[in-house]
Amino acid sequence: MNYPRIYPFLHGGLVACCALLSVTAVAQSFGPTLISPTGAQKAPAADGFISRWLILEPIPANGLTDSAVQAIVQKDYFPGQFTVIPHDGDKVTVGDATLTWHAVETKLYNVNLYHFANALGKPTSNVLFWAVTIVNSPREMPGVRLAIGSNAASVWWLNGKEVAAIYGDRQTVIDDGVSKRLTLNKGANVLRAAVINAGGATDFCARFLDADDKPLKGITISLAAPGK
Amino acid sequence: MKFAVLITLAVAASIAFALDGQIGIHDPSTIVKCNGKYYTWGTGGAGLVSDDGWTWRRGANLPRRGLAPDVIHIGDRYYVYVAANIGAQPKAAVNMIWSKTLDPDSPDYKWEEGGVVATSNGVEDSNAIDPGVFLDPNDGHLWLTYGSYFGYIRLVQLDPKTGKRVNPNDQPRDLAINCEASDMFFHDGWYYLLGTHGSCCRGADSGYNIRVGRSRKVTGPYLDPDGVDMIQGGGKMLIGSGGRFIGPGHFGLLDFGDGVQKFSMHWEADLDRGGASVLDIRPLLWKDGWPSAGENMKEGTYEIESVRTGTALEMAVEGVPVGGPRGRGGRGGPGRGGAPGGGPGRGGAAGQGGAPPAGAGRGGPGGPGGGGLFGGTGAPIPAQDAAQVSSKWPEGKIDARMANYLCQAQQKWTIAPAPDGGGYPGSPYFKITVAGTDRALAATDGGELVVLPAFTGGAEQLWRIEQLPDASWRIEPKGIPNSNESMALSAVGASSATLSKFDAKSDKQRWLIKMP
After folding, report:
1. What is the pLDDT of residue A28?
2. Are B94 and B129 in contact (CB under 8 A)?
3. Which end of chain A has the smaller Cβ count within 10 Å, N or C?
4. What is the pLDDT of residue A227?
């Protein structure tokens, strides 16, 4: 028996309270699990999860089925939504709203979008989050896989090509959706995600796996292509 | 009573297969492979040969005919041990012959006589027939067991370089009694002695069954799980009669590597073949250190569930809840499912279903048939089949993926022998199609999966489905486009399936094939 939709209000209140406290203590925090990244690049930890992301403030969206999610992510929200590599603080206009990209780094394996949105005073239910990161590879790496989990549905693009999607009302499970074998280019690779939440908690995790399904080693993560 | 009826229906929905082709044989030798072909010989010396282990045909006879031969391949020689009565039973002898090949088309095909390796004089408690030969993987020693119901199953040591007795004057060791068709193998620190109990040669009235005991030493004692020594008639049942097959006997181990083992045997009577004695191959399963007989794949419609993730293979289309979408129900006043909820259920929201909601999607009275969140519709909901929901499925190729099993049409797969698809030891290749459709699971270039709009018979659409030692299943395509690699269906993620190299230590390539 699971009633996940009852606790967001209670949980949200607690998180908001904590967020206020932490804002006074650490200027660039987004709730208890997200901070502003420091340094140009960072290698994933041994478990391979990508901790550093640029995330756009949430856009209202409703629907978790396969067709609804695809319709949501294919809708035009802002110029270059499938190509832009934003900077921290960049703003876009979506409908009547001005939304800001934020650079975040998670302390955990997952990126807690509930913490993110709630700390910014933004809605957490019936929303779409866009997230972008740069995966730097020292060489061409064929035969790797992107492995993701999300709450709830999500669609993922690597270098502009959709490589993974999971649908429906779901919780984040490590390596839930795993892409087919793909190739990381030498240099910068743009990884882009759209996460759609209906209500309650929302988060995601992502890592690359090698040919043996082990966390991929040798890559670094940055929020801008080298030299940019 | 209801349970019994359900079992009957389940069995009726599945079709069991024995091997194909000319498989008439009695007392078959352990099946061995030579130059890509499988060989066995039975009592009388008649041989069977197969290119794939599934379809068999008559092969060359042995030059020395007799009772219940056994064969082993060591180095560049194939040793065949074959017994014959040399007087009134139980006066008998086991002879050895050898050849560098079993293939009559090879220039090396030439049988040499190796002489007598065991005898019984007609008075002693032994009947020197039914030889079984065993090479100990621990020390390379070669052993021969033999014997029938008159007296003991006996053990003598052979020279692996010659196939002959190490010392003909050594007294044979007694290992078991009240059985015949003995054989041995080693597994995980134990020696196992197989023996066939019961009576043979009575067609459908044959009580043949294969039993096993184990020992830490090759020389015994061999005890069953109850501690009864096989020399006092002990033995755990490995396989008995079942289905349309009666009287299994003459075990022979087939080891395919990666922990996958099978065994060859014969049935005294295949009821679907008029009660003829026929060859068969079955998987060998393991539990708590004891082997048992598994099942070859049976035709039917199944859920294919990952042991690793618990999620089920499905064609990647948007599912429709069985019975139509129902709202989840909001949470109204105090208490669960009490007063009407505070908002519309999610499944019933506009644009999220495809068919009209079957329920109001609100909390309500919970009694059966009372509607609301927990009350159901008050009537049985029929099973969902493809015809009900496939109108929105795309026409072309569709990805395969995994999801929680919800009894939906795209999650039910019909597994059936592929016409003219050939086979592998024990089974034909199968096609795997979405039930009620011709949409076929296939391997793609690069070792991924796709569901094709129709089955066309290509190697990438043919599947080898074999039971693993823990009774789960390994599912491998016959071919992968532009690849010579052997790969198996693999649960790389909870919602994602692929093909990858089989790893016996992982659950990724282990599947449960369950009645939907």
Report:
1. 63
2. yes
3. N
4. 64
To the nearest 10°, report the CA torsion of B413, B416, B418, B422. 120
Q: How far apart are CA A53 and CA A133, in angstroms?
A: 5
CB A119 within 8 A of CB A100: no
Closest-CA residue to B258 (of B428, B505, B512): B505
User: What average pLDDT does this structure show over B409-416?
Assistant: 98
Rounded Cα distance between B168 and B158, Å, is 9
pLDDT digits (tens, 9 = 90+) for B131-187: 999 999 999 999 999 999 999 999 999 999 999 999 999 999 999 999 999 999 999
Helix (H, G, I), strand (E, B) or coil at B13: helix
- Give pairs for B40-43: CB < 8 Å, separation 24+: B40/B71, B40/B252, B40/B264, B40/B279, B41/B69, B41/B71, B41/B80, B41/B82, B42/B68, B42/B69, B42/B266, B43/B67, B43/B68, B43/B69
| Residue keyed to tokens 């929020």 | A223
- Name the 3-class secondary structure at A119: helix
Q: Do B496 and A65 touch (CB under 8 A)?
A: no
Q: Do A177 and B446 make contact, defined as CB atoms within 8 angstroms?
A: no
Task: Tell me which range, A32-46, A50-64, B345-359, B362-376, is most confidently predicted by mean pLDDT.
Answer: A50-64
Smallest Cβ distance to B318: which of A6, A67, A166?
A: A67
Contacts of A147 in chain B (CB under 8 A): 492-493
Q: Give me the phi and psi of B255, to 5 degrees please.
A: -110, 120
For B290, the token pair is 């004891």
Q: How far is A132 from chain B (nearest CA, A)?
A: 22
Cα separation, B145 vs B136, in Å, equals: 13
Mean pLDDT of B82-86: 94
CA distance B515 to B301: 7
- The span from the CA of B347 to the CA of B359, in Å, is 10
Which residues of chain A lie closer than 8 angstroms to B496, CB-CB? 164, 176-179
Judge contact between A31 and A117, C-beta under 8 A. Answer: no
In terms of C-beta density within 10 A (0-12 exposed, 13-18 middle, 19 or more buried), how is residue A150 classed? buried
pLDDT of residue B341: 30
Cross-chain CB nearest to A181 (options B318, B351, B446): B446
Question: In Å, how far is A189's CA from the nearest CA of chain B?
Answer: 21
Tell me if residue B36 falls in helix, strand or coil. Answer: coil
ipTM of this complex: 0.86
Q: Tokens for B487? A: 């790969």
User: Which structure tokens are listed for A135?
Assistant: 């995966």
Chain A positions in Cβ-Cβ contact with residue B351 (cut-off 8 Å):
63, 65, 67-68
B237 SS3 class: strand
